TrEMBL record, chain A:
One Gene Ontology molecular-function label: FAD binding
Protein name according to UniProt: Xanthine dehydrogenase family protein subunit M
Domain of life assignment: Bacteria
Organism: Leekyejoonella antrihumi
Domain FAD-binding PCMH-type: start-end pairs: 1-178
Keyword set, alphabetical order: FAD, Flavoprotein, Oxidoreductase
One Pfam family cited in the UniProt record for this chain: FAD_binding_5
Xref: InterPro entries: CO_DH_flav_C (IPR005107), CO_DH_flav_C_dom_sf (IPR036683), Diverse_Substr_Oxidored (IPR051312), FAD-bd_PCMH (IPR016166), FAD-bd_PCMH-like_sf (IPR036318), FAD-bd_PCMH_sub1 (IPR016167), FAD-bd_PCMH_sub2 (IPR016169), Mopterin_DH_FAD-bd (IPR002346)
From TrEMBL, chain B:
UniProt KW Chloroplast keyword: no
Ranges of compositional bias, category Polar residues: 792-806
Domain Aldehyde oxidase/xanthine dehydrogenase a/b hammerhead: 29-144
Gene3D superfamilies tied to this protein: Aldehyde oxidase/xanthine dehydrogenase, a/b hammerhead (3.90.1170.50), Aldehyde oxidase/xanthine dehydrogenase, molybdopterin binding domain (3.30.365.10)
Region (Disordered): 1-24, 792-817
One Pfam family matching this protein: MoCoBD_1
Name the record gives this protein: Xanthine dehydrogenase family protein molybdopterin-binding subunit
Naturally occurring in which organism (per UniProt): Leekyejoonella antrihumi
Length: 285, 817
């Protein structure tokens, strides 16, 4: 469990990170919280020549309001975000999702930005980002930034819109103030990656769902937005019968993996059941 | 159970007190000595290159690249040690014609499982050793993997080992008619009014001790000192000497702090031999510590059996016969007791029941997977699973309550001692008392009512109740019995007591603790027996130099064998002290009584002398009885007269989510009878850990290989080890039926929880789903497996499973509940 040798840099500003990335090309990996990268290195599944540790840049850890948005620094830890009152108020789904991420030790080291850029399809945060229509701020060579919508951010398994030489710096979430939310995660043991999970957030009008956002974890090579479920839920009562039919649409168009925890057909079945439960739990929050 | 460190003021009774563990002071404050933390001057670090292929000829291997790598001291392949490494020992030739194809520590010509060691690098740092592995070039000529047990036995199967003619290692048979312990199984089958047959699969499990295995070897004189994370330093010493031809008196083996074992460290490992070979070749201390992935892919696995079991009975539920055929996956090589693991269970299939007839046969089979060997319970969890599952199946067939069926067939408390159809004599037990208490503890009747309510309501989350009324044979073992089974060792244990001049006591034991709390438990026994304060007692273990004679720790033997050796040695000390006391008090030995650490003359309360006073008198030796050797020190070697037979009743209530297949344990209660409790806190600890591992087999763990013979579960991401959040609150209690086979009345407890719990969980799951016609689910009972079982039962669209449950339930007889 010893990584292959690598050079280590610990820049103290985003500008220095970008300069180092520009110099290194694709031989460098950015180290955020290290909760995914370190196991990868230790198991020697990857052996980058250079590790650029971005853990010494306080600005990347800030969480603040920005008009109609919440701005979360890419290096905010899961625990920072989980316990942030602004997040609970304006992006409850993110809070509910983070409760289910791994365990307290990992949540204290792992970062929201690191998890999103790692883009493990079984990772929890992608679905929440997608359902909340998050926007990802990416800094590029020379310091120029661009903003990518979550739906365009996830490209493939372990692949995002962040290109060589770029750095994710901030996650911007349109405020979903007053929306209820739930993350229904299905695992065999608590510390496991999601077999399937469903992120759901709803705006209620009395007992009726007036708007819904639903996204799925580990139902394909990227997080998947269940748009047809969202449409079908509008105007439905938040009851088992009211939600059941819409939830059956969850697996539409998905191509989940088959592995030790279940084959694709089982996952598609789970997606339906878990979507119903997620929406009902969200509405009942 | 509330822990207390307070000694009762008046009469000291350590035995029965829930003392916290004296060893925890150093274990939890960072003062422990793990092998991997040890550093010796000039020490090299080893890394081992392992085969990526399950089965292949090594056509070429070149380690010269590694030798050029910075920091590398040496690199060796199997060829470098082919003449000196010998074969890893197998101490249990279970039949005269058992085939042992040999087990080199470093593969020379052929690899037989993915993870087989092929080369070793010694470097100044561990990092350099690991880096240099990548410079070793190996060419393999692949052979077909041998993975399926039944295919491996078929004519024309690829042979795992080219020097054999079959993949069958042995066939071992027990027949009660032949043994004279019971009737003929053939007759039982012929006369059966009811016959139930099932096939159960015991999946492969990986013993997941907290500390990975680690070995440090220092060449000394003409021999070695070996520190190893092992359960068996004494056996390691002897076996290493025999394997490598080092004179035994030149080998010192030390097990320092050892972080768990669960059977996984009862073997002589390839890595121990390789480290010794390298250290001796280089004349430098050498250390090897495995990674967790190496534990999973190269340390031995447990279980891995196919169980074909048939039970015969009368219509009234009286059992008449039990017929078992085992196909045991031995893996690629025979480790220390690989072939004997199924035999440790072979005598336990009849369980607590009065079977008139019993037959068991077992085929041991070689495959291209990691060798199997002991894992907590070793053979007995498999046996208990099979009998407790088939009892539930018989109950269902007869439409009897599973508890009623057990009550009808178990040995009643007044029938002990009882000799079973397998030839074992159980000394004591009270299955009625344990069961009654467990039924009360779990709230059985309320749970049955809740189950009925959920069936009635067509609740998507159904409830099932599972029973396991188990016993096990442990306290390994009477030497003559081991001899009759061709085991390569006795089963005694040794202890000695050293009385120090200041009245303090050193207790030397041949038991080798690795987390159990022996230092605490043994101190309590000695404190009561000698009347010496608990804190004045030191337990010495785990080093063949300071603890020269022992057979180590496994098979729940530490207390019921090792603890009794301590008692015998203590009693010898008291007898020696009595002679000195008589001399000091000018009284006859016969007039002395020994109580609370002092001798006094009966009827003369003023005159007494304490053991510390006697110890000092013996130390100065100024005035001892004529001819008395100036020493109170004593040694005893105790060979148990019988196995130990703890028993208990475990009851489990599981929720089964019919929509997802997920199983959740709602309630788990167990009442264990481990005889006289020495330290209830330690007992609870053993039971809790045991339950976790037994439940893990039922629900979570499996070592999985793909079609090419690669281990898929190579990290804890895929080998799903449960942790505290995955397990229920355990409701534990005890009944106390002292053993009559030893002076403390104790029975083993180390394996009980693991042995008992697995069938309780699976019985509960099947019970929840039996109305759907489901009568088995393969372990681990993953959500997908449970869901598929529900689907194939015909309840195939979501939501209707519960409805079907109700329909099936309604159509069965009312007494099926």
């Amino acid at each position: 469990m010893i990584p292959a040798p690598f050079d280590y840099l610990a820049p103290e500003s985003v500008e220095e990170v970008l300069a180092a990335l520009a110099e290194s090309g694709d031989d460098a990996k950015v180290l955020a919280g290290g909760q995914s990268l370190l196991p990868v290195l230790r198991l020697r599944l990857n052996a980058p020549e250079k590790i650029i540790d971005i853990g010494r840049i306080p600005a990347l850890r800030e969480i603040h309001e920005d008009g109609e948005y919440l701005a979360i620094g890419a290096m905010a830890t899961h625990d920072d975000v989980l316990h942030n009152a602004l997040v609970t108020e304006h992006a409850l789904l993110l809070h509910k999702t983070l409760v289910e991420v791994a365990d307290p030790q990992i949540r204290h080291r792992g970062t929201v930005g690191g998890a999103l850029v790692h883009a493990d399809p079984a990772g929890d945060l992608g679905a929440a980002a997608l359902a909340l229509d998050a926007e990802l701020v990416i800094a590029g060579p020379g310091g120029a930034t661009r903003t990518v919508a979550a739906k365009d951010f996830f490209v493939d398994i372990f692949e995002t819109a962040v290109q060589d030489g770029e750095l994710l710096t901030q996650i911007r979430i349109p405020k979903h103030t007053g929306w209820r939310a739930h993350y229904e995660k299905f695992v065999r043991v608590a510390h496991q990656w999601a077999i399937v999970a469903v992120a759901a957030t709803v705006r209620m009008d009395g007992g009726t769902i007036s708007e819904a956002r639903v996204a799925l974890t580990n139902m394909g090579s990227t997080p998947v937005r269940a748009a047809s479920v969202e449409r079908a839920l509008v105007g439905k009562p938040a009851t088992d019968d009211g939600v059941r039919e819409a939830a059956t649409l969850a697996a539409e168009g998905t191509s989940p993996p088959s592995d030790l925890n279940g084959d694709a057909a089982y996952r598609k079945h789970l997606a339906g059941v878990l979507t119903r439960r997620a929406v009902l739990a969200a509405a009942g929050e | 159970m509330t822990a207390t460190d307070e000694r009762p003021a008046e009469q000291a009774h350590e035995i029965g007190t829930s003392r916290t563990r004296k060893e925890d002071q150093h274990l939890i404050t960072g003062h422990s000595t793990w092998v991997d933390n040890m550093v010796l001057p000039g020490m090299v670090h080893l890394a081992i290159l392992r085969s990526p292929m399950a089965h292949a000829k090594i056509t070429s291997i070149d380690a010269s690249g590694a030798r050029k790598y910075p920091g590398v001291v040496a690199a060796f392949t199997g060829a470098d040690f082919a003449d000196t490494q010998g074969n890893l020992p197998c101490a249990w030739p279970v039949t005269p014609d058992m085939v042992n194809p040999g087990a080199p520590s470093l593969a020379v010509e052929q690899v037989n499982f993915a993870g087989d060691a092929v080369a070793v690098v010694a470097a100044r740092t561990k990092a350099e050793a690991v880096d240099a592995l990548e410079s070793i070039e190996v060419e393999y000529d692949p052979l077909p993997p041998v993975l399926d047990l039944e295919a491996a036995l078929a004519d024309g199967s690829t042979l795992v080992h080219p020097n054999t003619t079959s993949n069958k290692c042995y066939t071992w048979v027990f027949d009660s008619a032949d043994a004279g312990s019971g009737a003929s199984m053939d007759d039982a089958r012929r006369d059966a009014e009811v016959t139930v047959t099932r096939r159960f699969i015991q999946q492969r499990l990986s013993p997941s001790y907290m500390e990975p295995r680690s070995t440090l070897v220092q060449p000394v004189d003409q021999g070695v000192t070996i520190w190893s994370s092992t359960q068996i330093p004494h056996i390691l010493r002897t076996m290493l000497a025999l394997t490598l031809g080092i004179p035994e008196h030149k080998v010192r083996a030390i097990a320092p702090d050892v972080g768990g074992g669960f059977g996984g460290k009862i073997t002589i490992t390839p890595e121990e031999v390789i480290t010794t070979l390298v250290a001796r070749r280089l004349g430098k201390p050498a250390k090897y510590t495995e990674t967790r992935s190496e534990t999973l892919e190269a340390a031995h696995h447990g279980r891995a059996q196919i169980q074909d079991i048939t039970i015969t009975a009368k219509q009234d539920g009286t059992v008449t016969g039990l017929d078992v055929h085992l196909t045991a996956d031995l893996g690629a090589y025979l480790r220390l007791i690989t072939p004997g693991i199924p035999l440790l269970g072979a005598f336990m299939y009849p369980g607590i029941y009065k079977f008139p007839a019993y037959h068991l046969s077992c085929d041991g089979v070689f495959t291209t997977k990691v060798p199997t060997d002991a894992y907590r319970g070793a053979g007995r969890p498999e046996a208990t699973f099979a009998i407790e599952r088939i009892m539930d199946e018989l109950a269902a067939e007869l439409k009897m309550d599973p508890l009623a069926l057990r009550r009808k067939n178990w040995i009643a408390h007044e029938e002990f001692p009882f000799t079973t159809v397998a030839g074992l004599t159980y000394d004591t037990g009270n299955y009625e008392a344990a069961t009654d208490k467990a039924v009360e503890l779990v709230g059985w009747e309320d749970l049955r009512a809740e189950q009925a309510r959920r069936r009635e309501a067509k609740d998507p989350v159904q409830l099932g109740l599972g029973v396991s009324t188990f016993t096990e044979m442990c306290g390994i073992a009477p030497s003559r019995v081991l001899g009759s089974l061709s085991f390569g060792s006795g089963g005694w244990e040794n202890a000695s007591i050293r009385m120090l001049p200041t009245g303090k006591v050193e207790v030397v034991t041949g038991i080798s603790p690795h987390g159990q709390g022996h230092e605490t438990g043994f101190s309590q026994i000695v404190a009561d027996r000698l009347g010496i304060p608990f804190d004045d007692i030191e337990i010495i273990h785990g080093d063949t130099q300071s603890s020269p004679k022992g057979l180590d720790t496994y098979g729940s033997r530490s207390l019921s064998v090792g603890g009794i050796a301590v008692v015998k040695a203590v009693d010898k000390v008291i007898e020696k002290a009595r002679r000195v006391a008589a001399h000091m008090l000018e009284a006859s030995q016969d007039d002395l009584e020994f109580e609370a650490g002092s001798f006094s003359v009966k009827g003369a309360p003023g005159s007494s002398v304490s053991l510390p006073e006697i110890a000092f008198a013996v130390f100065v030796a100024h005035d001892l009885p004529d001819g008395m050797e100036p020493s109170l020190n004593s040694e005893a070697t105790y060979d148990p007269v019988n196995f130990s037979f703890p028993h208990g009743t475990h009851l489990c209530a599981t929720e089964v989510d019919t929509e997802t297949g997920r199983v959740k344990i709602l309630k788990y209660a167990c009442v264990d009878d481990v005889g006289t409790p020495i330290n209830p806190l330690l007992i609870d600890g053993q039971v809790h850990g045991g339950l976790a591992q037994g439940i893990a087999q039922a629900l979570y763990e499996e070592a999985v290989y793909d079609d090419a013979g690669n281990l898929v579960t190579g990290t804890f991401v895929d080998y799903t080890l449960p942790a505290a959040p995955d397990l229920p609150n355990f409701l534990t209690d005890r009944t106390v039926t002292p053993s009559t086979d030893n002076p403390l009345g104790v029975k083993g407890v180390g394996e009980a929880g693991t042995i008992a719990s697995t069938p309780a969980v699976v019985n509960a799951i099947v019970d929840a789903l039996r109305p759907l016609g489901i009568n088995n689910i393969q372990m681990p009972c993953t959500p997908e497996r449970v869901w598929r079982a529900i689907q194939s039962s015909g309840a195939n669209d979501q939501g209707s499973a519960a409805a079907s449950t109700q329909e099936h339930f309604d159509s069965t007889e009312g007494d099926a509940q």
